[in-house]
Each structure stands twice: as C-alpha cells, then as structure tokens.
Amino acid sequence: MLTKTTRGKHFRLWGLSLIVTSVMALSACGSDKNGDVSQGSESAGNQPAEVKVTKVTQVTNWFAEPEHGGQYAALSKGFYKDAGLDMTIQPGGPGVSASQIVASGKAEFGMGQADEILLARENGIPLVAIAATFQKNPQGIMYHKDKYKDISELNGHKVYVGSGVAFWEYLKKAYKLDTVQEMKYTGSLANFVADPESATQIYVTSEPFTMQQEGVDVDYFLNYDLGYKQYGNILFTTEDYIKDHPDIVKAYVEASIKGWDYYKDNSEEINKVMQEKNPDLKLEAMAFGTKAQEALVYGGDAETNGVGYMNKEIWEGLQKQLVDIGILKKTAPIDEAFTNEFLPAK
Question: Where are the domains of the chain?
C-alpha cells in the first residue's frame, strides 16, 4: 500500500499516462485565471493604494518532502508574497499528474522530470521547463551492500522496476541487461529485503534511509552517474503562460530560487513546516533526505550559475537518448523545451 512516504510515485510509467487528446482539449480551452486581488495600503496622501497580488498555484510531484524544500521555504518565509504572488502549493500524490493539471489551466506551475517535459511536448502538450531544482536526478537502483560493483552484474537477477520506465529502458540498452528478471515495482521493499540478490528502483534521498532504519545495509547506482543525465524536479509552465505572463513567471522563478537558497542553511526550520503538511514523514527521514540531496541541488552547474540553471547539452543528450531507446519518435528544437531567462541574475 502506498503511503505519503513511499517514493515509487516519482517513477512515472511511460508513456506519459495522460490521455493526450483530452488534455489537449482542455489546454485549448485555456484558463487565464490569474485572479488579481487588491490589497490596500496607505499612500502619502492617506489614500488607499491598490497593490495587485496574483493568485497562482503550483503542483508538486508528491506530498511535502525535502525535494520541495525551496518551494515551501519561499511560501513560509513570504518570498512569494513579496514577489506579488498569492501562492497555493498543491501536493501531488498517487494518480495526480502535474503535467495534466498545468496543461488544462487548472494550475499555472508544476513540478516533474525532464524526460516528462520532452515526451509531453512530442504529444502536443507545450510544457516548458523554467528551472531545474535538482542538477542531478535522485533516481537510482538500490542493491544489497557489497553485492555488485557494476550494474551489468544485475544480469540473471531480479530488479523491481516500473514497466517501460524511461531510465530503465536506457540502462538496459546501455549496459546490455538482457537477462535481468524484471519484476513489477509496487512501492514495497519487502521482496527486495528478502532477496539479497535483487535490486530495486529508488529515490536515493528516501529508500536508503528506510533500509538503514531496518538494519539492512545497502548501496545504490545513481542513474545520472550511469549516463542517464536528466534534471530532477523541474519547475514548468506552458508556452502560452510564458507568452501572456512573463512577469509572473519571472516572479515565481526568482522567489522559488530564493527559497532554495534559504533552505540550504535552514532546512531544519523548513522541514518542520513541511512535516505539518505531511506528518507521515518523520523529521529524521527529512534530515536524511536533505543531506542526501544537497550535492544534487547545489552542486554541478549550480555552483557557478545558481540553483535552477539548465545546460543545453544535458537537454540535448537526454533527448537523443530517448530517441535512441524509442521513447521519443524524433528530435525537436531543444531550445523550445527549456529556458534560463527567468532565473535570477548571477
């Protein structure tokens, strides 16, 4: 049974379990629902001056957790409010598609994976990545400690993984995993624990902590380091929203990045805020996740270009990999899929 601490939700099954035709119909209808609300303030002449605050919603990819730390920091510390945004964070969960919700106009911003953005675009859903809160995606393959030194050694053994998951299709081809016994991933780790020869898909910020608590020694391969280089927890919106409301997009991105900068040195404070939203996730687990993700968020290109930065070569490489494994049918202009223009100046 999936709980708010189960991390299998991040491994979306291909291909993009949206009903594309219905999403496009909703998207065509649009939703310019930027409800501006006025807040009175006193001008020099004691006359109320109207300050417009725009109501917006962002949909995350699961219940509140460290991977959303910057977003909740921006909300709780008033960074969104200071930017003129009346922000609602709508948590994801089983059966919640941020892509579909944003495409239909029911939310302005969403959070997902880079490969989701590319597949959505090929299916006519014009999503655009506007920041990458993770330079390296936390997806990986976990195994019992000291069992494997190379992922090719998984041949002949059971691997619990979602059917058709893009990163797994890449790994199978790149490392010739022809004789792996693919087992259905359900979110439970019981079968993995019972079989020391097996491996399972994970989020490196979560399941290793669960195993630590159960006294099971594990290690993992990070998919990014194995060559499947994609950004994680992409913030995205639609082409139309960027065109119609570039000022709001810029305000959202800048406030979000300010939140991530704050979270780096104040994670304990913000984790307590998130636990109020997701009490099933204990503070000890949050502390583990915060430490595990630090290099993934603030390392790499983020060291010199700031949190959220995206490299064109990474996007092009990912697109090529998805074409090579048949997830995408063809390449498309990659500059249309992402932009750094709304990131704070460095």
Answer: 8-137+230-336, 139-222
Looking only at the bridges linking them, the beta strands covering 48-59 and 85-90 are: parallel
- Token pair belonging to 180: 């792996």
DSSP letters for 263-329? HHH-HHHHHHHHHHH-TTS-HHHHHHHHHHHHHHHHSTTHHHH-TB---HHHHHHHHHHHHHTTSSS
Instruction: Give the right CATH number for 139-222 from 3.30.450.40, 3.40.190.10, 3.40.50.720, 3.40.1190.20.
Output: 3.40.190.10
Residues 60 and 71 sit within 8 Å (Cβ to Cβ)? yes
Nearest to 149 by CA among 179, 123, 175, 187: 175
Q: Is the peptide bond before 232 cis (omega within 30 degrees of 0)?
A: no
Q: Give the single-character DSSP code of 182.
A: E
Judge whether 8-137+230-336 and 139-222 match in fold.
Answer: yes
Torsion of CA 251, 252, 256, 257, to 10 degrees: -50
Quick one: CATH architecture of 8-137+230-336? 3-Layer(aba) Sandwich (3.40)
The pLDDT tens digits of the residues spanning 109-138 come to: 999 999 999 999 999 999 999 999 999 999
Find, among 56, 134, 132, 136, the residue nearest to 343 by Cα: 132
Closest CA to 58 of 83, 25, 40: 83
**pLDDT band at 48; cut points 50, 70, 90:** low
